[in-house]
Amino acid sequence: MENIRATKTQEEQWMVQNHVFRIYDLVFRLPPHAQSVNFELRRDNHIEYLTKSLKQLGPNFTVLDANRPWLCYWIIHSIALLGDCLDDKLENGVVDFLQQCQDPNGGYGGGPGQMPHLATTYAAVNTLITVGGQRSLSSIDRKKLYAFLLRMKDASGGFRMHDGGEVDVRACYTAISVASVLNILDDRLIQSVGDYILSCQTHEGGIAGEPGSEAHGGYTFCGLAAMVLINEVNRLDLPGLIDWVVFRQGVECGFQGRTNKLVDGCYSFWQGGVAAIIQRLYLLVNEQLGLPNTFKYDCRTASDNDLSDSDGEPYSDGAASPENDSSQPMQEGKSNASAAIGVNDNGYKFIKGAIGMTPLFNSMALQQYILLCSQEEAGFRDKPGKRRDHYHTCYVLSGLSICQHSNIKEADSPPLPRDIMGPYSNLLEPVHPLHNIVLDKYYEAHEFFTTS
Ligand SMILES: CC(C)=CCC/C(C)=C/CC/C(C)=C/COP(=O)(O)OP(=O)(O)O
Ligand SMILES: [Zn+2]
């Protein structure tokens, strides 16, 4: 980190310290003609498009591809963000279908009988949590899932996507995210994963998929979220990461995924999510910058945002909590949830903590890009000229929710009308930025998996 910082000029250093993102407010101030533009979210059209798509997948989801849990997640998460839900028949169909994708030895494949894969496991778990309720949540075989995650663990500390598959930051995130939300995260899964992710932070400040590759928004989100969940985020060069992400918002108002590439609506979540996570890490950012932990421009006090252990020690190098002696995998019929609660609760503590920074990006500008450039009559796209799809609908809506809630001061408080581009009826459900699950459903799952 020393070396990275030493290559920066005094001016760059100054800009980070004074939160350069504030400059975006000047650059992207709304032009007068924007007053007459229709910024309305076409909520009903989006819900109709998504619900129809889910029904078209058929009662048995018989389309032949390896992405079916992803399709479920993209569609059902989007519907949840829009504040709607599925009828019982559709919900039960989804739970039954994902049950068929669950491997006898744990984890979920892309379809019935397909080999389990970390990406589709993440998609299936997030879907089942979003559906919610006893039937859906209890359909996840956590003991076998734990065994699958352990089998995917690589000697490098990272995870591989599937048996014999590639090791990358995406695999680390999907493994850690599901383990955390299902309350099966323990020291064996965490072991050295922070070293692997750290080795992927590049000279630019963002995080790459593998050591030596180029920093990219998708992997940066994965690496950062995983580091928070394992309580090792202070090992990253956070000022360097801020430097990188704030310059990824382009003059088009959307985010790009990497340097010198075109903006794309889906990065509204990948990069916007990174910014939203960093907003809750202000104590650590200040610590790394050698600044006192007081923010004159904000109403937070340092103690509000202390992501610390109960003994008051700040988030530190992934040292397991005393109660987290979870060196044994889950036993048959018995969750080791209470043993592992120390590490598993990082996601909960994180979302309940105060938000110490104002947004790191221009939220109103990004909302303009989303509503005017990404939004179609129904569904969302990468950019004008591209076609809508479920992936972009999911991540553009997730990014819109991040924008709308980027100015709130504490968890569970509603945004002000001035933070919503267009009418207040555009407001979406808030998400947990580490898992990208709507908050109400996250809370329900947290309760379910800490008590069962
Ligand atoms: C949870 C999970 C599975 C996360 C996945 C994260 C993610 C989106 C990774 C991005 C992968 C990547 C290198 C895309 C570049 O595509 P490109 O070259 O077409 O796009 P670009 O020009 O915008 O970089
Ligand atoms: Zn995209």
TrEMBL record:
Key words, A-Z: Metal-binding, Prenyltransferase, Repeat, Transferase, Zinc
Cofactor: Zn(2+)
Regions of compositional bias (Polar residues) in chain numbering: 323-336
Top-level EC class as recorded in UniProt: transferase
EC identifiers of the protein: 2.5.1.58
Ranges in a coiled coil: none
The organism's place on the tree of life at top rank: Eukaryota
Gene Ontology biological-process entries: prenylation
Domain Prenyltransferase alpha-alpha toroid as annotated: residue spans: 41-437
Cofactor note: Binds 1 zinc ion per subunit.
InterPro entries listed in its UniProt record: FTB, PGGT1B-like, Prenyltrans, Terpenoid_cyclase/PrenylTrfase
One Pfam family linked to the record: Prenyltrans
Region (Disordered): 306-336
Reaction(s) the record says it catalyses: L-cysteinyl-[protein] + (2E,6E)-farnesyl diphosphate = S-(2E,6E)-farnesyl-L-cysteinyl-[protein] + diphosphate
GO cellular component term, pick one: protein farnesyltransferase complex
GO molecular function, one term: zinc ion binding
Function (record text): Catalyzes the transfer of a farnesyl moiety from farnesyl diphosphate to a cysteine at the fourth position from the C-terminus of several proteins. The beta subunit is responsible for peptide-binding.
Record's subunit section: Heterodimer of FTA and FTB.
UniProt record similarity statement: Belongs to the protein prenyltransferase subunit beta family.
Listed name of the protein: Protein farnesyltransferase subunit beta
